[in-house]
Amino acid sequence: MNDTNLTTTTEAASATEATEAADAAERLIAEFRSLPPDNDRKREIITELDDNAQALPFLVSVVADPGEYDLARVESATVLRLWPPADPALRHEAGRALLSALRDPEEDLVRQYAAMSLAPYTADPVVAAVLDTTARADEDPLVQSGARFAIEEAHRLQETGAGGP
Question: Which pLDDT score is estimated for 33?
């Protein structure tokens, strides 16, 4: 087999995997949307989508929605910390969605996870400023602690070059 055939086979396999990932994401997102607001299956679906790049826009919408199930928002925030979007526009949107969740006065747990999940988004000056203020002055000590964790993680990401754009 020559290199051209190997490349074509590899490209075809990658395309098949991308199609399968998109189909899986579409199926799970449809199931998520069909469930009652506080159904714990929603949290499970988020964990099933955790490394599916096709699902990232959906996860951003979940974390940003104050009416969404709190544990689904927590899981979405965690996934966005572990798998930040590579696309700069979606990455910006994800950072802003996490900031929105951080400001949700009704959901302490969501706020804590949003704070911890902001490390990959600190290239955005607004995220960095809010995170710094949160670490010093938030009324919830667990949110403060989460913000301090994110700041430390952001420094580690920058030092290792793993922070992305």
Answer: 97
